[in-house]
Design brief:
heterodimer; A: about 625 residues; alpha/beta; 6-stranded mixed β-sheet; B: alpha+beta; 6-stranded antiparallel β-sheet; about 40% strand; globular
């Protein structure tokens, strides 16, 4: 029963039961994979000790049943059946016990060694829902522990119960009415499944009726009232736009100061590094490679990427923790349905504004394979934090006409229109994908609107920083470091008198011109693949013929440099369009590869936005030239 | 009673009914059953999204949003 000293504990439960909060409480920060709370497909694992016994906890995906309807259900069922954990903790929601008991009964039909964890007892109490825990335990034949994971109450009792069951100190005898899970002869497979499910539902109903007491006839009245406003015809969309708009605004406005501080700090470190290398008498090429190549690229990526993510992710996680995000999917589903996509794609797109790699991971919340792939492939059409500065810089320099009082207004409008265009392209491309390559893949739509919950601000901060911010940053650093080497080599290795960079740029020039750009701009986007944050510094480096990345003191100086290199408003416009539509950055591609576990879909995700970008730019550039606008 | 039949999709907010037939098939049928939508289950339409579709239903204490093409497969007899 106990392998060595390790007790294997599996956690299963419906989505939105706080299962991952329990998991995090149990394991603390000792987890193998920093997967998303509640959206785990690849199950997260973590260790904890209780009474000097090592436990390995496995967070199975949240599922409604174990019928193997979806990949998640299959993972959960197979794990319980094949890995035979020493104890399976079935996490159920005290505020919605009846529906949750369904899964509990299915699990109890598979394993005897189980503990029921009735979570969200505090929420239930607030709603006047009383769960008779001893009676539930008597009726199910396994230990039942009431918990409020958010305040940590009940967790040590839960650990006790788990250890007791794993050791066999408690003899469990699940009271599963064996007959109700067997089929009568002569029934088809479908009729059989129907019968079993119906019996389970009825069984759950009768247990819930016996153990749940309602102190109010309408325990969820407050949630319904809030939802009538937040999903209502009148206020639903405006409130949603205001909420999401403020998240983006806070991210962009709040990131400037810490970004500059971070840049100053990291570039000061560069001086130390450079002093160190000089005193070690390293050869010039090695100095260049390490300091102006790898270090400078890393410093750039971190200082531009970290602050917006450290603001965006906690804010977004807060909305998620509140339970608001499913309402966004509910409000916008009609739009996505028309595009053959899932309403939850609205959420993965929102996440994409923060970081496309995080947006791709977020597609795990979409449970039908077709819609999930659509959301993955099209995520890059929303500009992330790294691309926003390009859009803003281009718009401020070239879209303001004669300047004046309305200058910043026009610039903001240009950026906004670009974003709207990105959303439009997302919907069109989603539709095309749904009709062509992804035709025939199964699809379904169901969306639970879970109760609103008081967010745990401290936990949100820590977990969003650990799970999202640092996770994405680590991947970005992993891609940026080798890219620093390539950039340095391109700028410093010369063939004859010409650097590799110039050589490559001039060979790209014809295509660039056709797209309203030039070879250097295309080259900057290609070399900027590790992180789009470095596209503009790369561009400045190439135009100045320098061999390291640079930033100019002011937008005016940058504008002059670009004008000197033949830029017009059309060049800026096409650069904005290409910034919106081009291959995903290295981090995102790596993430797509890991999430889809398919080379094919990674290539498709690379090709679809790239081809779109080339087509759009060529059409706009040639159209403008034909019309004589330039 | 029989004259009071409706599909979930045709219910207006605040209306309640009991499931009479579940016409959905395959995975969607199974998912509906997992939500507890078996015959005689009470369902109430609680919200409608700004575009009119999907609608959200209160099913055994949980609120589940269903698109119209899925909700149309669930036939209920409306309460008076």
């Amino acid at each position: 029963m106990i392998r060595g000293v390790v007790v294997v504990v599996a956690l299963c439960g419906n989505p939105n039961t706080g299962k991952s909060t329990i998991f995090n409480c149990l394991t603390g920060l000792k987890q193998h994979t920093g997967n998303w709370p509640g959206k785990t497909v690849l199950s997260a694992q973590g260790h904890y000790q209780h009474h000097q016994v090592n436990h390995l906890a496995i967070d199975l995906p949240g599922t409604y049943s174990l019928h193997a309807n979806s990949a998640e259900e299959e993972i959960a069922r197979d794990f319980i059946l094949q890995a035979q954990p020493d104890c399976t903790v079935i996490v159920v929601d005290a505020t919605c016990l009846e529906r949750n008991l369904n899964l509990a009964l299915q699990v109890l039909a598979l394993t005897k060694r189980a503990v029921i964890c009735v979570n969200l007892m505090d929420e239930a109490q607030r709603k006047g829902i009383v769960v008779n825990v001893p009676e539930l335990s008597r009726r199910l034949g396994v230990p039942v522990v009431g918990t409020s994971a958010r305040s940590g109450s009940g967790l040590s009792e839960l650990k006790d119960a788990v250890l007791d069951v794993a050791r066999g100190d408690i003899e469990t005898e699940p009271l599963v009415e064996a007959n109700s899970y067997r089929c009568e002869p002569g029934l088809s497979q479908e009729e059989c499944r129907d019968l079993i499910t119906c019996n389970t539902v009825k069984h759950a109903e009768s247990i819930a009726a016996a153990v749940v007491t309602l102190q109010s006839a309408t325990p969820h009245a407050v949630d319904r009232k809030i939802d009538r406003i937040l999903t209502g015809r009148l206020f639903g969309i405006p409130i949603m736009l205001a909420l999401l708009g403020s998240v983006f605004w806070l991210t962009i406005a709040g990131a400037n100061v810490p970004g500059e501080l971070l840049a100053t700090g990291l570039f000061r470190l560069e001086e130390h590094l450079s002093w160190l290398m000089t005193s070690l008498q390293s050869p010039p090429w090695l100095y260049g490679l390490i300091v102006t190549g790898v270090w400078r690229t890393l410093a750039w990526v971190i200082s531009v990427m970290l602050p917006p993510m450290a603001i965006f992710f906690p804010l977004f996680t807060l909305l998620e923790d509140l339970g608001y995000l499913p309402r966004v999917a509910f409000n916008l589903d009609a739009l996505f349905k028309r595009a053959g996509a899932h309403g939850k794609q609205a959420l993965t797109m929102c996440m994409g504004f923060g970081c496309n790699a995080a947006g791709v991971i977020a597609t795990r919340i979409i449970d039908s394979p077709r819609e999930r792939l659509i959301a993955t492939i099209t995520n890059n059409f929303v500009p992330c934090n790294g691309r926003f500065p390009i859009l803003i810089a281009m718009a401020s320099m070239f879209m303001i006409g004669t300047g004046g009082h309305f200058a910043s207004f026009w610039a903001a409008l240009a950026v906004l229109l670009t974003v709207v265009l990105g959303v439009g392209i997302t919907l069109v491309v989603s539709k095309l994908l749904a009709m062509t390559v992804l035709k025939g893949l199964p699809s379904s739509f169901t969306l639970e609107l879970p109760p609103y919950r008081v967010p745990q601000i401290g936990t949100v901060l820590v977990r969003s920083l650990l799970d999202r911010t640092l996770f994405v940053l680590a991947r970005a650093v992993a891609v940026a470091a080798p890219a620093g080497v390539v950039i340095w080599a391109m700028a410093n290795i010369t063939v004859g008198d010409v650097s590799l960079l110039n050589l490559a740029a001039s060979s790209l020039d014809p295509l660039g011109r056709l797209m309203g750009l030039d070879g250097f701009i295309l080259m900057a986007f290609i070399l900027g693949m590790p992180a789009n944050e470095i596209v503009i510094p790369l561009l400045i480096m190439s135009y100045l013929g320098a061999n390291t990345m640079l930033e100019l003191d002011s937008l005016d100086a940058l504008r002059q440099l670009l004008l000197d290199n033949g830029w017009t408003w059309l060049t800026a416009l096409c650069t904005m369009l290409f910034a919106l539509n081009h291959f995903p950055c290295g981090t995102t591609l790596l993430t797509i590869r890991k999430e889809t576990m398919s080379r094919k879909w990674t290539w498709v995700s690379f090709a679809v936005p790239t081809v779109t970008g080339i087509v759009v730019c060529v059409l706009v550039a040639q159209g403008a030239r034909l019309l004589g606008l330039v | 009673m029989a004259t009071n039949l409706s599909s979930l999709a045709d219910m207006s907010v605040g209306q309640r009914g009991r499931v009479v037939v579940l016409k959905s098939c395959d995975a969607i049928r199974q998912r509906m059953l997992d939500f507890g939508l078996i015959v005689a289950t009470t369902v109430e339409a609680v919200h409608v999204s700004p575009a009119g579709d999907p609608k959200a239903y209160s099913i055994r204490g949980a609120v589940i949003a269903l698109r119209s093409e899925i909700a149309r497969q669930v036939i209920v007899s409306l309460d008076d």
